[in-house]
Each structure stands twice: as structure tokens, then as C-alpha cells.
């Protein structure tokens, strides 16, 4: 991750190295204390104990310990990071950085040690539920408390020093190290999927070697994966880059042909993939697909048009409930006789205009409000719709708290009956709708309407002055977003076989928002990446992800991710070029100003003049 | 917003329809209610809701008092929203969580005090103690929140801090889950004297409700004194008016903003204790709905206006207590108590549609007036 961030790239002209012990001690201690608090918090959240069953490398490293170990490295790395602006020279990296990282890491380790001592001597189990002997045991590696404390300080200093040392080694070495570490962790996390695939592809012998029987990589496996990843980082990466460069260099009809090859290869892969995947992975991918649909819809509203809709789950609910009402024999008794019970496909055709109407209905009153009022009011609408579905008043129509059960699967002309028990079929169904949604998003983004959305996002008054009918255009964003969400709702109802008000809580809206923001607002690829990473690995609001042991913490991580992304990388993992320019406008201006200023200074210095202080 | 001469578009017609629709539902509900109070067997009531019995005066009084005491809590929380909005111009979505932190702190301390026997023997002192502690912890939460999440985002596009505050809210909720466990936790029982009713003139009020209203009124008075009569308050008002000019006048803008967060946090802490004393149960999501409703109260009262926030809280609190039974029940809606929250949100929408500046005028910072 670090090597694509321009701010950290070491510039060739390096200044003096700083002496090892000439440190800003106060800063180091305060950062160390923050690290210590964070690590104490992670310990008290019980992650070290509850994630311990998940092994990364059997028996050396588990997720439980990893949850404590990654932080010091990262913090120590960022302690010595220098932001190099135009006209400044970075310091040469050396012992100074390693010592700084080591000090910070040691203070963090001492924090964990302090916690172990406290647990040993006091009983705070009453408010803090995880204040337990198991935690103490885990924190002291099963040794005595004194030894545990000493070990943590040493480990902390070592990890911190390693984090600081990441500055000292060359970019190439750093890339190799980070690739190896990432690959080992990733392969261990993806274990379920990999064993799943290997069974179908007759590669079991391979997964048997690298994975331990009860989860996690075996030691041989870790070495194999590390060698493969390291080899790739050292030799394969440049080849891959060259290939990509040659691909990018293609022009005209050749480029079109190459694009076609890539797209059809990706399509073929997507179509064939579910066949080799087992039940669990298909289920996982089907859930991811549902969220991709939702996130693509919210991406149009938030990412393109810049409208923060916090009640987005309302459209998901409308899609789900309408489908259930139109297809289930168990719908409420109050519906008139003439309302037919139809097939899913026909229901979807009714769902779409209904969702569009809901979009208009919710959109119209809020469209003239300012952004933050709009957010709260849409949230209010989302809650009102859920409360109505839940209420006794409408329970004759919506089933109240019992919801609507017995929603039949999707019958496709007698060819197939898609339902939750057959995740592979569901995945294909979701895939079809996702492709449709991607096509719609892609075409809209570059259309007149899409450009109007982006103009509104940048400056509504200016957009209006340019002749854009802002009201209609914003309403269109609501409508398109609502339709995509209702697709997802319709599939959700058929997949789960029932709809309950609890499936449509505000939490869902917020999780979709996190997916869009982490992936990259306004970028289709980003949104898909966000959904795969967050929903696939961590899990959705109710759906388990790959890391099932992690489900108690996923919402915590979502909250933290949302804050972190907004503070550090508001454009998301896969940024939209235009969007990130908007977000960093000031920095661009500042850089331009600095550049101009430095040029001026050089000019005037050349002319013997004095540089004006700023 | 839109000049009077501009032609009406479809959206305008729709909004007008919505406004009048909501008004007529309210008017019709009130009409049905009043007729039902006069004569339970009138033809309208027969048609809409034959089982309705109407409300007795006592029941109505109880509803209003419950609404007002709940409303004074909303008002206390709303002050935090309103002040932060006045100074920074963004909705601190996580303010409800500050309130929850206050209630949680109170729960932990009160249970410890209960175990040691102090709760029973010396209730007033213990209450004071947990209030002070809750104020401290809530203030600390609010200040740390500002420092970590919001200060780096000053001057960012308007939606960025809002989204961040959603993240903060989510984060604090789940910190509570992982540290204190996911279940609901209860406050210890109050001494019997406090749960009895007290007669003042013609009103019978449960003493806890009385306590809530009195504490809210005292806090409000203290806040009013702080904002209107002290130098700190003057600085806060100046920063709300115009940050740059305030800093030119020698006001430390950063410190003033921190003070604003701290004062808002303290009010939320007091509200958290009051909530705990009244409902005696707290869970990690306790802060969410009251937070949103308190924001609605701030909007109803006119955001950026402190008296308005309190008045808005009282209005919203009594409306959501009374409206389901007075407006919806006579219309024949079943299970109206489930729709309380929906009523609160509908009120927010109605106020924003009819009078976006709030019922009690508005005092906004200069950036918002533009």
C-alpha cells in the first residue's frame, strides 16, 4: 500500500541523516501512549482470545496475536514519515528512524504489560466483560506475568524497530517484504475459498500441503507462499508492469481488440467461476453481489450526484416487500382478492416502477434541502418506512413483526428454480443483475445526465447557472438509485425466502455507505472492490463473511474505517480522478503555490534580490 | 430559496400537496378526537374506530407530563447539536453517542454505589456524584472526538465531516459493545420515595419526572448564563458569527470550538443520567434515536438558537407522546404507540417543509446565511 502513495516515496536527493538519539522525545512518548491505549483497547475487546482459533501460521501465529501485532509496525512506520514538499529535502533514513520506532513500540508493549498486571491484581469484570483470566493467559503467552510484561516490551520494541526500519531499506526490498507478509496473511484468510476451489480442480494435494488440517497455513505452506510471493515481487512484478505498459500503449483498433479480449476473458471467468466453487463460497459471492447492486445504486446518489441519502435501505425494503407480497402465499390477509400471486419475474416488473415512485416520493420533499438536512430527513424516511412495515396497523398487509414468509424462489420458465438453498443459481441471478447495473452505471456516468450529476456535486449554483434543471436531475439520481436497490431487494426476498422488518434497519444503509466510501465514491470498479473486500471478508450487517470469527468486531471496524477513510483518503481505495481532485483541491492549489513560490525564490536569488518572508 | 415569481414546477405542486395533506391529516385527526371526547358514539368515531374510548383528563395529563419530561431530555441533547452547528456548521451525528456514554458511565457508577450501600442511604449525594462523573466522561468523549475526527476536517466539503461523524457514532456504539457487552444494562432501583407521585397545585407528577424537569431547567439556566453573560460565551457567539473575524479580534478559535464541544458534551452527560434515572435501562443503541430526535428538536426550534433547542425539545417530546393517541388513534390506526418514532420523524419533515428556519426563528453563522 505504501509504495503507491506519492508522499512517502523517497526522493533521490537526500539530506543529512539524523543522529540516533537526537529525538523529539515528547512526541515519541505521546504517540507511544496513544499506541498503548489502542492496544489495551484491542486487548479488552477480547480480540486476542476470540480470534485465537483462527490460525495464520500453525502453531506460530494466530489472528488473535496478529490483532495486537500489526499496530506497532504501522504506527512506528508512520512516526518517521516525512512529508516532503517542493523545495524541501528529506533526511537520510537510518538508526534515527529505527530507534524512534523502537521507543514507540516499546511503550505500546508496556501498555499491554500494564494491562496484564492490572488483570492479575484487580477484578473489573463487572463493567468490562472481557476482563478475564483467559485474556491474562493469552496476554502473557501462558507464562508468568513478569515474563509476559518483559516479552511484550521486547516484542513491541522489535516490531516498532522493524516498522522504523521499513524506511531504511530500499523501496524494492520494502515492496518484497510487504508483499510477502500480505500474501501469507491473505492466503491464510482465503483458506476456505482456496480449499473449496481446489476440490473441484483436483488441486487438493497442494492445499493439503500448505494448509494445516484445522485451518491456517502449515509452516511448510507459509514458506511456500512466502517464496512464491517474494519471487513475484522481485521478478514477476516488473514483467507484469511491462505487460500493462505495453497494453496501455496500444492504440486504435488494436486497443479495442485487446479490450475485447480482456473483457471476454473476465466475463468467461465470472461465468465459469461459480461452477468450481463450493456452496459456502457461492453463498458468500451471492451476498457480495447483493451489496454490489445496492452500492452501485448508492454510488449514483452519493458518488455521482453528491446527495447523502441515509435512508437508502428504504428502497431495498420496498423491493423486498413488494416482491414478497406479489409472490408469497403467506402475504397479509388484508390484500384484496384480485391481487394476483405471480412469478418473481413479473413481480420484478412491478417492483421497478414502484421503486421509482418511492424514489420520487422520498426525493421530492428533500430535494431542495441542504445536504446535511437532507441526510437526516432521508434517514427519517427510512425509519418511517421500516416502522410502518413493522406496525400492527399495516400488519394485515406486511405481516408486522412476523414479516412475510414462504416467498418462493425465482422460476425461470421452468428451466430453473433459484432459491437460497442453491447458492450457485442465486449467484448467477445476482451476476446478471450486477452486470445490468454496471452497464447502467457505466453508460450513465458518461451521459449528459451523469455529467449533470457531477456538475451538481461540484457546485449546485454553478450547475443551475449552466442551465441544468437541478431538481429534475437530482430526482433522477434518486429514481435510478431506488431502482437498483429494489433489484437487490427483490433478489434478497427470493434468496432468503422471507422478509422481516429487522432486515431493513438503518445499519444496512450505513454499511452500504461504508462500502461506497471505502471503495471510492463515484467509481464503479471502486464500489465493486469495496463490496468484495468489506462484505466478502468481514461480512454484511447480517451475512457472515470469510472471517466468521470476526463478526463481533466487523461493525467496529466499519466505523473505524469510515473515520479513517474520511480523514486520510476521502477518495477511497480506487479513486475517481475527478472526485479526488475536488477533495484535494486545496492541496493542489497549495502545491502549485509552493512550486511557484520556490521558482520565484530561485529567480530572485539568482537576481541577487531578497526573498520576501511569508 | 426560490423566488416567488418563478413558475411552479411539478415538485412544487407535489410539495404543496404534501404540506396540505399532512395538515389535513392533523386537522382531521384533531377534529375526530375532539368529537370523540364530546360523544364517544358519534357517527365519525363509529365509522373510523368503534372501540375507541377517548382519553380521560388524567390520562391526557399523564401523557403531557411524560412528553414534557422526555422533551426536556431531548432539549438538553439538542443544545449540543445546536451549539456545534452554530459554531462549525455541521451536524455532529455522534452527539447522541456522547449522551449514551453519559448514561453508561452513570450505570456503571450507580451500580458500584448500590453495591456499597451509598445509593440507598445517601441518594442525593450519589446522584450528584454520578452526574459529575458522567459530565466528566461525556465532556472528555466530546473533546477527544473533536480533536481526533473533526479538527483535521475543518474547511473540508460540508458532507465530509458529516460522514465522519456517522463513522464516529458507529465506532463509539461498537466500542461500548465490545467493552461492556451487547445486552441491555439496568440502573439500580431508586429509593421508594422517588418513584411516588407528588402533587403540585392540581398536577400529580412522579417525583423522578419532576427531578428530570428541574435538573434540565437548572442546566439550561446555567448554560444560558455561560453563553450570554460570560467572556467564554461571548467568544462562542463571536466564533459562531464569523470565525475569521473572531480570530482577528484575538479570540482563540480552536479553544472556543473545544469549549463548545465540551459544554455540549456536558449537557449530553446530564441528559444521559436523567435518561438512566427515568428509564433505568441503557444499551449501546440508547443514543441513536434520542440523538436523531434531539437533532429534529434543534431543527424544530431553529438550529443555532439555544432557547429554540430547548423549546423544540419540549415541543417534540410532547408531540410524540400526545400525537399518536390524539391524532392517529381517533383515525382508526392500530397499535399507535409503535408509531411514536414515526411521528417524531414526520414532525421533522413537516417543519422542514413548512418552515425550514424552525418554529422559533433562527440564528445562523454567516456562512449559512449566504
Ends apart, CA distance between termini of chain B: 11 Å
Overall pLDDT metric of chain B: 86
Number of helices of chain B: 16
Instruction: Note the beta-strand portion of chain B.
Output: under 5%
The helix-and-strand class of chain A reads mainly alpha
Integer average pLDDT of chain A:
84
Strand tally of chain A is 6
Please give a structural write-up:
The complex is a heterodimer of chains A (614) and B (370). By secondary structure, chain A is an all-alpha fold. Chain A has 4 domains: 1-168, no CATH class; 169-249, no CATH class; 279-505, no CATH class; 577-608. Helices cover 68% and strands 3% of the residues of chain A. Chain A contains 25 helices and 6 strands. Chain A has a two-stranded parallel ribbon. In chain A, strand 5 (410-412) and strand 6 (416-418) form a beta hairpin. In chain A, helix 13 packs antiparallel against helix 14. Chain A is globular and about 80 Å long. Chain B is mainly alpha-helical. Chain B has one domain (64-369): Orthogonal Bundle (ABC transporter involved in vitamin B12 uptake, BtuC). Chain B has 16 helices and 4 strands. In chain B, the strands form 2 sheets. In chain B, strands 1-4 form a two-stranded antiparallel sheet. In chain B, strand 2 and strand 3 form a beta hairpin. The interface between A and B is large, with 58 and 61 residues.
Quick recap:
The complex is a heterodimer of chains A (614) and B (370). By secondary structure, chain A is an all-alpha fold.
Show the helix and strand layout.
The complex is a heterodimer of chains A (614) and B (370).
Chain A: E1 14-17, H1 25-44, H2 47-50, E2 55-57, E3 61-62, H3 63-79, E4 90-92, H4 95-121, H5 133-139, H6 145-168, H7 171-189, H8 191-201, H9 204-210, H10 219-249, H11 252-276, H12 279-304, H13 313-327, H14 344-366, H15 371-390, H16 395-398, E5 410-412, E6 416-418, H17 423-445, H18 448-458, H19 460-465, H20 470-496, H21 506-519, H22 524-538, H23 554-568, H24 577-583, H25 585-606
Parallel strand pairs in A: 1-4
Antiparallel strand pairs in A: 2-3, 5-6
Helix pairs in contact in A: 1-3, 1-4, 3-4, 3-6, 4-5, 4-6, 7-10, 8-9, 11-17, 12-17, 12-20, 12-21, 12-22, 13-14, 13-15, 13-20, 14-20, 17-20, 18-20, 21-22, 21-23
Chain B: H1 10-38, H2 43-48, H3 57-88, H4 95-116, H5 118-121, H6 123-150, H7 159-180, E1 185-186, H8 192-195, E2 197-200, E3 203-206, H9 207-229, H10 231-241, H11 243-248, H12 253-279, E4 281-282, H13 288-301, H14 306-328, H15 340-354, H16 366-369
Antiparallel strand pairs in B: 1-4, 2-3
Helix pairs in contact in B: 3-9, 3-12, 3-13, 3-14, 4-6, 4-7, 4-12, 4-13, 6-12, 9-10, 9-12, 10-12, 13-14, 13-15, 14-15
